[in-house]
Specification:
There is one protein chain. Among the domains are: 125 residues, Nucleic acid-binding proteins (OB fold (Dihydrolipoamide Acetyltransferase, E2P), Beta Barrel); 136 residues, Succinyl-CoA synthetase domains (Rossmann fold, 3-Layer(aba) Sandwich), CATH 3.40.50.261. By secondary structure, the protein is an alpha/beta fold. β11, α8 and β12 form a beta-alpha-beta unit. It has 11 helices and 12 strands. The strands form 3 sheets. A 5-stranded mixed barrel has the order 3-4-5-7-6. Strands 9-8-10-11-12 form a 5-stranded parallel sheet, sandwiched between helices.
């Protein structure tokens, strides 16, 4: 019809003219025009659907599958670099939300979505993924009770990983100050959204790399939906808590909320306030307990001293008195004094007999000596007389 406007898909111009004046294009021109139009219009989209035709990554590292609903199907591709960064595990039939851009392939006049991120969609999909991840991590022993560390009784420094604003950090600080004020270091993080898990992992690792480490960590956030709390089901967070050299208390959501960090933490608090209560004792209770222990110690020491005094007194009564000891000594001396004269007499007599025996032996020897001397003299005299007669 005359007066109708024509749109040029190649140049994007609108011109007036009859059908006979419509510009003729090649297939390539149309294909490229459609590609430009689609990619400019859908450069960043989120698409919800069910994964179909998924067989894992190709040998090239890229991943090819489709996203479908009850009425349509959309081809999808995840390049190798993006696939390695996915936090959610892909599986056939899983309902997901993919984020990326729509692009067309002019050679086949087809279009597809280049996927950057994938996240489960719907409570059912999240619960299925959560259970699969829980079983996988549990099979590695990360949730075993034997690997959980005892919490320090009175930590000097407490590290808190949470949002720097909101009721959670106020409740924790207020409760700690009421019970037993401690030095607190807050590492601010997002506790919801795509970057939350990475920030929490960085905070846990950051505290562990400090020269003067905290004695205890508290990872906390308030309540929320399953999707809101989803970062605390992240595998990287679970592994960071398991590898932490510092004991960790998890305090995520309300008492009925349970996330994977609760299974791996050394102690799970039902609320952030309960985490602060678990972290430190009440100062007044501690002072009272110390006073009670001191009183018990004094009573015990008094009892021990009394028992020892009684034992010493009993032992003293069984010992002889000085008079008893001296009486025994005097009695022995008196006995010796009575026996001394007789003993001396016997001793003198014994020595007299021995001396007499020695005297007899000495007299006989002298007699023999005198007789020998007399004989010698007689011989000498005889010899002198003989010599005299000879002269």
């Amino acid at each position: 019809m005359a007066g109708e406007a024509d749109f040029d898909p190649v140049t994007g111009e609108i011109r007036d003219g009859a059908g006979s004046n419509v510009t003729e294009y090649s297939v390539t021109d149309i294909a490229h025009a459609l590609k430009r139009s689609i990619e400019e219009r859908f450069s960043h989209v989120r698409v919800r659907g069910e994964i179909s035709g998924y067989r894992g990554p190709h040998s090239s590292g890229h991943c090819y599958f489709s996203i479908k609903d009850e009425n349509a199907k959309l081809d999808a591709v995840i390049w190798r670099g993006s696939f390695s960064r996915l936090r959610s595990k892909l599986q056939e039939g899983l309902e997901v939300i993919v984020t990326g851009k729509i692009t067309s392939y002019p050679g086949k006049s087809s279009y597809q979505i280049i996927v950057d991120t994938v996240e489960p969609a719907g409570i059912g999909a999240l619960m299925a993924l959560l259970e699969e991840r829980r079983r996988m991590l549990a099979s590695e022993g990360l949730f075993d009770a034997a690997r959980k560390r005892p919490l320090p009784y009175l930590p000097r420094t407490i590290g808190v990983i949470t949002s720097p604003t909101g009721a959670v950090i106020r409740d924790i600080l207020h409760r700690l100050n009421d019970r037993f004020p401690r030095h607190v270091i807050v590492w601010p993080v997002r506790v919801q959204g795509e970057t939350a898990a990475a920030e929490i992992v960085a905070a846990i690792n950051g505290f562990n790399q400090l020269v003067e480490k905290p004695d205890l960590l508290i990872v906390a956030r308030g309540g929320g939906s399953l999707e809101d709390l989803w970062p605390f089901n992240d595998e990287a967070i679970v592994r960071a808590v398991a590898a932490s050299a510092i004991p960790v208390i998890s305090a995520i959501g309300h008492e009925t909320d349970t996330t994977l960090i609760d299974h791996v933490a050394d102690w799970r608090a039902p609320t952030p306030t309960a985490a602060a209560e678990k972290a430190v004792p009440v100062r007044a209770d501690l002072v009272s307990e110390l006073a009670s222990l001191e009183a018990r110690q004094r009573r015990a020491m008094a009892r021990v001293m009394s028992e020892r005094k009684l034992r010493l007194e009993s032992a003293a009564r069984s010992l002889p008195t000085p008079d008893d000891v001296m009486a025994n000594v005097r009695q022995r001396l008196d006995g010796l004094a009575l026996r001394l004269p007789g003993a001396l007499k016997v001793n003198v007599q014994r020595h007299a007999v021995a001396l007499a025996g020695q005297t007899g032996r000495l007299s006989l020897i002298l007699l023999h000596q005198r007789m020998a001397e007399s004989r010698r003299r007689m011989v000498d005299a005889g010899q002198r007389n003989v010599r005299a007669l000879q002269v």
